[in-house]
Specification:
Layout: H1 2-27, E1 42-55, E2 78-91, E3 94-104, E4 113-124, E5 131-139, H2 144-147, H3 160-163, E6 170-178, H4 181-192, E7 204-209, E8 224-230, E9 233-235, E10 238-252, E11 269-281, E12 286-301, E13 306-321, E14 323-325, E15 328-342, E16 351-366, E17 369-383, E18 391-404
Antiparallel strand pairs: 1-2, 1-18, 2-3, 3-4, 4-5, 5-6, 6-7, 7-8, 8-10, 9-10, 10-11, 11-12, 12-13, 13-15, 14-15, 15-16, 16-17, 17-18
């Protein structure tokens, strides 16, 4: 009797359970799609470069402060860059980009310090973000090679002629960019497909920035202004990109960059303006990159022991070829560069005359690793108040290993 009662109770509970599940199934509503949280669209990538410049070196007094602080006497194995990049489309019209470098070198004696490179956000004006404002510290849109990431560039250092315009290529300001959706996609593909693009800085770029270069205080109330127009287009399977760009402002020489005894303007302010033209033929498989700029800026004059506004000019041409062997990619290249002018961000606005030929090859055995071997023939005159009549000539073999992650 007890057993029968227990069995009946079990079947009743089982029946009630099935009905409850049926009711739940019938009344269950499909899950609604939720908007992704901002951090779900955030990504991290980066790269590291290790160099050695002393092989087959013929003159240890030949160096390049702007290029690589491990050139010449005292140089050895050197971490040129150690970048981490945090980026993402955190909203439909808001894009964030933050890039610190953990291998910045403020001098030849002090290496591998952490420093902020980029910290900006793009604010889209329209739904496709064809019109957008970039606010924060970022690259100034002047020169193709300046804007091209060091992760993608073939020669180990940027050319003196255009890179002397903006130390570390960056400054703090507000920039406006416009490019059609189709062209923005092309800008992205020119990088992602390994064609050594510069990235998306718009077809039209306009901006105002401090003018004292990245991570430095503004020293006057007169921002620099810059404008750039570029247009990549495809013709018979080739992609060509011509550009023109210019900037204008007044640069204030920091007192820490002045030698005792050098003469300078009482307000330390100097006219700083340039215009440049660019031509790029992307390597399919043969490529050309050429740029040239003219302008005026501060430069040390050894005849008067003073820093004066003087004319400047210079540029470069790079020829390269992209060869693919199964999964491997090989980029042989040759670059000649010339520059005659001052470097405002160096001691006493150091005066330069540069003639340099570089022959090298980049080898990518697989996506995450690159090896560059480059032989340099260099003639550099670089003079300031304490170091006059300084002409150095020499040759050296340079090697860089790069890991991408």
């Amino acid at each position: 009797m007890k057993f029968s009662a227990i069995l009946i109770s079990f079947f009743l509970l089982f029946s009630l359970s099935l009905n409850a599940q049926k009711d739940t199934t019938n009344t269950h509503k499909p899950e609604q799609k939720t908007t992704p949280k901002w951090h779900e669209n955030f990504s991290i990538r980066g790269y590291t470069q290790i160099r050695y410049n002393r092989l087959l070196e013929t003159n240890e007094d030949l160096g390049c402060e702007q290029c690589d602080r491990s050139w010449g006497k005292g140089g050895g194995f050197f971490i040129r860059r150690m970048r981490l990049i945090f980026y993402g489309q955190v909203g439909k019209r808001v894009y964030v980009y933050i890039q610190p470098d953990f291998a910045s070198s403020p001098s030849t004696e002090r290496l591998h310090f952490g420093q902020l490179r980029d910290a900006y956000f793009d604010l889209g004006v329209d739904k496709d973000n064809e019109f957008r404002f970039r606010i924060g510290q970022s690259k100034v849109p002047f020169g193709f090679e300046n804007m091209q990431s060091s992760q993608n560039r073939l020669p180990l250092d940027r050319n003196d002629a255009l890179n002397s315009a903006v130390s570390n290529e960056r400054d703090l300001g507000v920039f406006f960019y416009w490019a059609p959706k189709k062209t923005r996609k092309l800008f992205s593909e020119l990088v992602s497909t390994g064609l050594k693009g510069s990235g998306d800085y718009g077809v039209v770029g306009l901006g105002a920035y401090n003018g004292q270069t990245a991570n430095n205080l503004e020293l006057n109330n007169s921002p620099h202004v810059v404008g750039r127009i570029t247009y990549p287009f495809e013709i018979k399977g080739q992609i060509i990109e011509p550009s023109i760009q210019a900037y204008h402002g007044y640069y204030v020489m920091p007192k820490s960059n002045l030698s005792s005894g050098v003469k300078y303007n009482s307000d330390l302010s100097y006219l700083d303006q340039r215009i440049a033209g660019t031509f790029v033929l992307y390597p399919k498989p043969f490529g050309i990159t050429a740029e040239y700029n003219f302008g005026k800026g501060p430069e040390f004059n050894k005849d008067t022991d003073s820093i004066e506004v003087q004319s400047l000019q210079g540029g470069y041409i790079t020829l390269n070829y992209m060869a693919k062997i199964k999964e491997q990619v090989i980029f042989p290249f040759i670059r000649y560069q010339y520059y005659d002018g001052g470097k405002k961000h160096e001691k006493d606005a150091r005066s330069y005359n540069v003639n340099e030929l570089e022959i090298g090859t980049e080898w990518q055995p697989f996506k995450n690793f690159e090896l560059v071997v480059m032989y340099t023939f260099s003639q550099r005159r670089f003079e300031d108040f304490a170091n006059q009549d300084n002409l150095q000539k020499g040759r050296l073999l340079r090697i860089q290993a790069q890991v991408n992650f």
